[in-house]
TrEMBL record:
GO terms for biological process: phosphorelay signal transduction system. The modification 4-aspartylphosphate is found at residue 58. Its EC number is 3.1.4.52. It comes from the Bacteria. Pfam families: EAL, GGDEF, Response_reg. Residues 7-123 form the Response regulatory domain. Keywords: c-di-GMP, Phosphoprotein. The lineage of its organism: Bacteria, Pseudomonadati, Pseudomonadota, Gammaproteobacteria, Oceanospirillales. It is an enzyme of class 3 (hydrolase). SUPFAM superfamilies: CheY-like, EAL domain-like, Nucleotide cyclase. One of its GO terms (molecular function) is cyclic-guanylate-specific phosphodiesterase activity. Residues 172-305 form the GGDEF domain. Residues 314-568 form the EAL domain. This is cyclic-guanylate-specific phosphodiesterase.
């Protein structure tokens, strides 16, 4: 029989006898890892520091005898196999040793072949060791996260429950922190899952370093971590810990040869103010974390009762949103884009509206962020694309002048691997020329994974579809990416249009964007034009196109058809 290792503790005062025993074990097919001791103190220490598969002990030694050694071993662990090895043990003493608790005995000088009974004990010892290790592994998998080695949800809840019981007895405070990494998915998408795993292990190490040894750090799932802060004197102590954690995480690190800075959102609940049991405290800390994330991330928030009310409202809204998608409660409105040189409507932007039977018209500011968080924005975005292209075909068949329909793509939708194939399929199904479609994406979407973004844009552009960069000026606004990426149009964000021509800074920004775009042969569309003064300024600066309430509010497909049918030009109101 051959095994990897046999951990043997040998109680012997003669080195030669020890070596003879070890050699015999090797000849028997074992690979012994052994320690030899010859005093009570050394035996006690060895039993305390290591876990042993088997103990071999001489019967007669100067410092103490084998019977004493057996008593010491049994006191530490009654299940370790104990074998006497002696040159002086007689049959009567051997029987007494077996009665005392030894499994068997060997006679020195007769170790050429291990006795069958000893062989059996060795095999049983190995089996027990393997069973113990299997049990330890199962215990680890049941209670710890395999990637980081941190406690998992099961062990976290158990420790939190224990901490709450202790706090109840002492009228103490316990803090629960719920931490979620900001934009972790972007790391996985751009650098790969190995890089993501490295980042998670780094976060685990930094969290452990940031808290006391009496506190608990756990990983629940994905990029979500939780912490138990015990024996708090004041509620604000949890905020001190949160600030320390955010500072520790913010230290730069290198992953997959990329310099990264970790950002996180933290929610805090405190026992007994914010909850009296583990699940309630964890749930309230979770809700607080989402509030911190909505305020921009890299931030912490304490639980407040109104957060729970908002969370309940959001859950109800999410249910209604799922039902709305199934029952097609959405409609598209279209806002004209007017060419200033001619005054003609040359394009429209498709804008999603939700007409809820119970809530009435729901603002996109309410449901679009929720759709993005829940992943519903992907099927919703596909519906918008199909509906807008179908409507563009209807206008074309009716004989109206060619219109370019602009459709907004969310970051989540833009990252879909089958996006280009989907767009091609929709155009083919509607027999719509690709120049009738314009894809709008934001600067932040473009920069989440520049390599993948460039590939997708190039493939869309190769199909004949034009690309518009939405909300220009509010994100990265880098000249280098305007040079790299195939962009056909820039949309000046309404925040830069709102205060022109009074605000000199906004005047300078608009003039610079228009002049730069002209040099790069890129169209400029100004959003949010609401006054004649704004319109005149943009025309004077050479802006190509505008859209906004001053010209035309978003209209249904039927109303827009009437505008086009009556021959109204985009300049009919000024």
């Amino acid at each position: 029989m051959s095994i990897e290792t046999l951990r043997a503790l040998i109680v012997e005062d003669e080195l030669n006898d020890t070596l003879l025993l070890v050699n015999e074990l090797k000849r028997g097919g074992y690979n012994p890892s052994f320690v030899c001791v010859d005093t009570r103190e050394a035996l006690e220490s060895a039993l305390q520091q290591e876990s042993w598969d088997i103990v071999f002990s001489d019967f007669t030694m100067p410092a103490f005898n084998g019977s004493d050694a057996l008593d010491i071993v049994r006191r530490h662990n009654p299940d370790i196999p104990f074998i006497f090895v002696s040159g002086t043990i007689g049959e009567e003493r051997a029987v007494a040793a077996i009665k005392q608790g030894a499994q068997d005995y060997l006679i020195k000088g007769h170790l050429k072949r291990l006795a069958p009974a000893v062989e059996r004990e060795l095999r049983d010892a190995v089996t027990r060791r393997e069973n113990r290790e299997a049990q330890k592994r199962l215990h680890f998998l049941a209670n710890y996260d395999a990637l980081t080695g941190l406690p998992n949800r099961v062990l976290f809840i158990d420790r939190l429950s224990h901490s709450l019981r202790m706090a109840q007895r002492s009228s103490g405070l316990v803090g629960v922190l719920y931490l979620d990494l900001d934009n972790f998915k972007d790391v996985n998408d751009s650098l790969g899952h190995n890089a993501g795993d490295t980042l998670l292990r780094t976060v685990a190490d930094r969290l452990t370093q940031a808290v006391r040894t009496s506190d608990t750090v756990a990983r629940l799932a994905g990029d979500e971590f939780t912490l138990i802060l015990t024996n708090l004197e004041h509620r604000d102590d949890a905020a001190v810990a949160a600030r320390k954690i955010l500072e520790q995480l913010s230290q730069p690190l290198e992953v997959a040869e990329q310099a990264l800075q970790i950002r996180a959102s933290v929610g805090i609940s405190v026992f007994p103010v914010d909850g009296t049991d583990s699940e309630e405290l964890l749930r309230n800390a979770d809700m607080s974390m989402y509030l911190a994330k909505q305020t921009g991330g890299s931030h912490y928030e304490f639980y407040r009762s109104e957060i729970g009310e908002k969370k309940a409202e959001r859950l109800e809204l999410l249910k209604a949103l799922r039902r709305a998608l199934e029952q097609r409660e959405f409609v598209l409105h279209y806002q004209p884009q007017v060419e200033l040189a001619t005054g003609h409507i040359v394009g429209v932007e498709a804008l999603l509206r939700w007409q809820c039977p119970e809530r009435g018209l729901v603002s996109p500011e309410q449901f679009i962020p929720l759709a993005e968080e829940s992943g519903l924005v992907v099927p919703l975005g596909e519906w918008v694309l199909r509906k807008a292209c179908a409507q563009a075909r209807i206008w074309r068949d009716t004989g109206y002048p060619p219109l370019r329909v602009a459709v907004n793509f969310s970051a989540c939708q833009f990252r879909q691997k089958n996006l280009v194939d989907l767009v091609k399929t929709v155009l083919d199904e509607n027999e719509l020329p690709p120049e009738c479609l314009e894809v709008e994406i934001t600067e932040s979407t473009l920069m989440q994974d520049t390599t993948a973004s460039l590939k997708t844009l190039q493939e869309l552009r190769a199909c004949g579809i034009s690309i518009s960069l939405d909300d220009f000026g509010t994100g990265y606004s880098s000249l280098s990416y305007l040079k790299r990426f195939p962009v056909d149009a820039l949309k000046i964000d309404r925040s830069f249009v709102r205060d022109i021509p009074q605000d000199t800074d906004d005047v300078a920004i608009n003039s610079a964007i228009i002049a730069m775009a002209a040099k790069l042969n890129i169209r400029v569309i100004a959003e949010g034009v609401e006054t004649l003064e704004q319109l005149n300024f943009l025309r004077t600066e050479g802006c190509a196109m505008v859209q906004g309430y001053y010209l035309q509010r978003p209209a249904s497909a039927q109303d827009l058809a009437l505008i086009l049918k009556n021959g109204r030009r985009g300049d009919s109101s000024y």
